[in-house]
Amino acid sequence: MSTTDGTGVSEQDGEVHVVQIYPRLSQDTTAYCPVQVSAGDTASAIIHNAVVTLGLDSSLTYCLLEARESGGEERLLEAGDCPLDRVLLWPPETQKWHPPSHGYYFILQEQQANSAGKRVETIKEDYDDLCNLPTVTEESVLEALRQRFYKHKIYTYTSNILIAINPNKFLPVYYNPKYIKMYENQPLGKLSPHIFAIADVAFRAMLNRQVNQCIVISGESGSGKTESSSFLIHCLTGLSQKTYSSGLERTILGAGPVIEAFGNSKTAENNNSSRFGKFIQLNYLESGVIRGAVIEKYLLEKSRLVSRDKSERNYHVFYYLLMGASKDEKEEFHLFKPQDYLYLNQGDVHLDDDEDLGQQYKRLHQAMEMVGFLSSTKKHIFSILSAVLLLGNVTFTLSEDTQVLEAGPAEVLSTLSDLLKVKNELLVTALTKRRVVTANCTVVSQYTLQEASTMRDSMAKSLYGALFDWIILHINHALLNRRDMEESISCLSIGVLDMFGFENLQTNSFEQLCINYSHETLQYYINQNIFKLEQNDYVSEGISWQNIDFTDNRGCIQLISSESVGLFDLLDQECSLPQATDETFMDKLKQQIQDNPLFVPSQNTEPTFVIQHFAGRVKYHIKDFRKKNTEHMRPEVVSLLRSSGRSFLHHLVASSPEALFRWGVLRATIRILTVFKSMARQRAELSELLINKSEPLDFSFDRSDEHPIDIFEDIFNLMNLRSLQHIVGVTAHDRTSKSIFHPHRTSKLQTVNAQFQASLKKLMKTIEKAEPFFIFCVRSNAEKKELQFDNELVLNQIKYTGILQMIHIQKSGYSAKYTFKEFVKKFRMLLPKGATATPEHITELFERMELDKSTYQIGKTKVFLKEKERQLLQDTLNKEVMRHIIILQRWFRACLIRLHFLEKRDASVIIQVQFFFTLPSYTPPPYHTANQNSGRASRNPTIRISRATRALQWDASLDREITNPKELRNLDEFLGNQVRSPPGKGKDTLSCLHWRCACFEGKNGKQLYNFSWPLCDQQKPQIGYKDLMKGFHNKVNSLAGSKEKGEVSLVVNLFQSVLDGFIRGEIKRVESEPAKATKTTKKRRKKKQCPDSPLDHLFSTYQVNIMQSCDLCGSYIWGMEKAYMCSACKLICHKKCLKQIITDCSTRCDDNVPGSLHFGVQVCVLTSKANPVPKVVELLLMHVELNGLYTEGIYRKSGSACRARELHQILETNPEGACLDNYPIHTISGLVKRWLRDLPDPLMTFSLYSDFLHAVELPEKPEKIRAVYKLIEELPPANYNTLERLIFHLVRVAKEEDHNKMSPSSLAIVFAPCILRSPDASDPFLGMKDVSKTTLCVEILISEQFRRYKEKMQNIQELEYAEALAVNQLKLRRQNTHIFGLWEEAGVPGENPHMHRENMQTPCRKIPGKPGREPGTFLLQGESANHYATVQPPWAISHYRNACLALCVHETEKRGDQHIKETT
């Protein structure tokens, strides 16, 4: 490795790579150090070489960082890292010398050291939360923020406080709309810091705690507060309605650009600086649906309109209008270039962004339309803006002869008169003469040149201020919800406070004092909430706490606003004195507050003073303090504008908007009557001309030159007087003061600072009632450069905002606190039964959970927890709730199964009592079996005897032996069915035999026949039917008495006839069965069905402690019994049920089985163009529609778990091979629900889950339906098609509600958890809370589709009825012709009596000979197989005439539709 001079390189073995190292050090060093690197060089070696080359202090510690973009992310290299490995990843042109603007270089920086002399290593870990820093110092906080800033991570948490550093550049990755969804329902800190996370947490806190919230944005000018508030508003409106945007959301989003255009400007610190304070309050219903909004503005900086620094601009809207207006608009509004206006030609007139300004003008038009401005209203506004600019071009001169003040130029005055619609003479008088009205007389005097210029500027400022007030009023009116005026529905709100940033300009005047005072007030509120109130709570609860000091700025606030001796109060006193001047005001300040340490008057004659604010010292120039404090719209201006012919100006100067509204209604009414009378006269005069002339009359009265009707806007733009009064009351605190001529005026107008203090107090009262969230915005550099981090500037902001103290208190404090009652109520499930709200029980819980004692404290009435411990408690609570839910579900299912079992048992007892009566005990003789001495287990089936009809005789069929267990089982079922058949009247059945045998015994209640067969599945039974008959004969003899001996033979003959019929049926069945499998196949089958491992299951025995149910037979496995459980698929069954298993182990099935998975995969995987709906779904739904629509409780009742598991395995691998007819309908319906539940992403996807919930929260039903269907359209195509098919199916089910008892609401309850599931399965409370909303959403879909279905069916029925009428009419008109045609088809002669088959018009096809059908029978082509005619010889045709006529009538009725189509 060697250094180079930058022009050449020294070559070594291999390829040469040169990198630049730029030192980032405090002392002056070389601009850069080019270094040649090789494969063996490490970072420490390169650092050593660079330190030697640059001549740096080798005793210090340095680190090396890689920068691939200029000003971008920087990656730290460890001491042992090889820089060449990173250089080789760079582009080839960057591996030699290149400008630093191209990126790809290394940075050498010194590691920081703290005051104790210990080295502070460069932070390697990226901390999202500054509370997690290992050491909290100003340097470590600054380094953490700087590293995150260069990684484009501009947001950082301090517990629940957000720090946002302005990058002076829009970062699209941060504000993609998907981020709103990503941060929705996420706890603070789970994802990377973001402003949307604060908005979501505030929104959820408002809904959960039902308390108003407030988000306070603080920071100096240029720190990005305006952009942050805009992002918050977008997110909060998005959380309310998501993709469903109503008119209110559009108005809220459109209001921002309009207000920014009229109230923001470019300053030295900020290109989009808000020159007024605003508080936006979004009102919500308790369900979270946005209801309305209110915008309150504070202290517009009007002085910027007429004067400002050279590096700054006027308000944005002027440049938008001048650079974006069309040619016609420029002529209409008399617009010139920016440099032609005095008010714009004072500073930065070079507009290098004129193209962007033109685009902003178009966006302004769109935003004004979103807010509700009419086209005529926009023209009025732009006319006023043009007039304001032209006022600055008015000049004043004194005539040399008469010394009369003259205004000019004439063309400017003429244009102003035209724009304001006032007379030129009145305009000149208002600008040049002062008018004083008293009770006795009116005094008119002339202004001086200086006074006239001041009057002109005052008129421009008051006119623009009144325009801005009217725009705010109109926007608030558009945001007003009518129900607020008609209903008393409680609302919640979230306020976003964006107040002025702290300012320290080159020349600071009255506006800067008001701005900094508001910033002081806001900082005091922040200190109270973060430091004082929190620490007071700790002290009052008596927990151990070390007090953390913070900067208290209460002294500065009292200096400015205290009564009698405050700066503002002294200013008001001076303003009330007619002879007061700026000098007298300065003298009073020195006398009254000179001793205050925060106030420093100037030591020289300069009229300035300095105030020590919490953010720094600010020097104020006292010039024009008095004028600006008493600034209002002068009476001359009010009188002039009231005389305007433009009604819009009347709104701007109205002292009482309510009175103006009433007068507008009256004027509009009079104007309407006048217009109608005028039109009536015109019609009367022209009535005679109508006879002679054919030209139509023009009855249009919309002629602005003859009858101006713009006054109607007073009516159209406002709802009613009540709404106007409400809006005026909201915005009255900061309206432009207007003075009018009044001879007996007693009250004085309120000064600007008094008005500002009153509005500020009202604001603080509002936000003190809400729960606050804080966002601190930090300015990254003073030059407004993109992605540049100024360490000194950022560090200064960290100091004066108290971020270090905030980290300490958030790190040491407890973010979660509950009263004892609140804690026990919230976490009762974690506490033992009977626990009360006492510290002992709560402490016992914490000790049981093994919480660190330093993470919680228990005070006198409250519990204090760290955030991690609170989250741990919440997670534990969620798990406990889920455990209890599962236990409840398990016991509920057990109770249901037990109830069904008891019902079946009672039913079986009733049946047994009904058909069996008590008989003496009987032990059948031992029947002949093979291998009787074998030790294998045997089975004893019960045989029930049925009806008998044959006489007793030994037939050859009785010689047959039962060698197959299946035959024995069939015999048992056959006889049981016979017994259960009721005896017919007059028939001698086996049931009659049962009653006869009961008479033999004389008692009831015992079984009649109970034959025990020593059988085993692994051994062939050998039972002879003769032995069975002998046993039966002995039984009858034992039961018969002496008098009934004659009936014994009859009973035996009856029984033998039954056996004979069964034997013949069994012989046929055996003959029809396929050949038996070979021995090897049997062995293999036996091996597969081995009870030790049937169908690949891995069973093991265990003793049951808690009652469970068998998955095969459904009966209980009681406690202390042994059960078998498969260790793979967890199948549980009795030992006796092992032989009944017919499904493979679900977790160990063969991977080579053909087919693919159909359960638990994405819907899009199972669909295609040919199959838009998954095969399994279509198969199951079709089967239910064919077989289950009339089944009571379909989809509500559950099927057999064993059968469902069996069918699931078949459908999983081979859906086409499944025979659904073999399964109960409830098993089929259960699999439909299982398929939906197993989807990884439900049909109504996770991404739209919250959207659907918000849609059903809308107040009106049509809005709910429209919102839900709009969201349905956003589903993926596969989900959309499948959901469409499912809803259609559910509509068919609901259509048969009279039979299946399943209404749309019942179906919604069943299917909502299947198709609309919560994405957050960890919190059970959240899922339970949304059950009603998800159910309502699905019910809306089913009900709406059901309604549309009934409407279509009704239309179809009406069409069918109309069609039937047409068919009948056509049938009557065409009956003779149609019948004649059918006779010819059937071989019936018409005019020709001799007709053969060859002459038939319709070809015939001969039907093959079948039993019961005569040869020569033909089927008419086109007819059904059930209708045919026999063709006979010609002489026999007449015998079939009547039959053919009947056939004709039948076919006419059947094919009426076809005949109509053919006829038309």
TrEMBL record:
Main location: cytoplasm
Protein keywords: Actin-binding, ATP-binding, Coiled coil, Cytoplasm, Metal-binding, Motor protein, Myosin, Nucleotide-binding, Zinc
Residue ranges occupied by any Myosin motor domain in the UniProt entry: 125-878
Cellular component GO terms held in the UniProt record: actin filament; cytoplasm; lamellipodium; myosin complex; ruffle
Keyword NAD: no
GO molecular function, one term: ATP binding
Cellular compartments annotated: Cytoplasm
Pfam family, one: Myosin_head
The Rho-GAP domain, residue ranges: 1161-1349
Domain Phorbol-ester/DAG-type: 1096-1145
Binding site for ATP: 219-226
Region Actin-binding, residue ranges: 760-782
InterPro entries the UniProt entry points to: C1-like_sf, Kinesin_motor_dom_sf, Myo9, Myosin_head_motor_dom-like, P-loop_NTPase, PKC_DAG/PE, RA_dom, Rho_GTPase_activation_prot
Family under the similarity heading: Belongs to the TRAFAC class myosin-kinesin ATPase superfamily. Myosin family.
Protein name stated in the entry: Myosin IXb
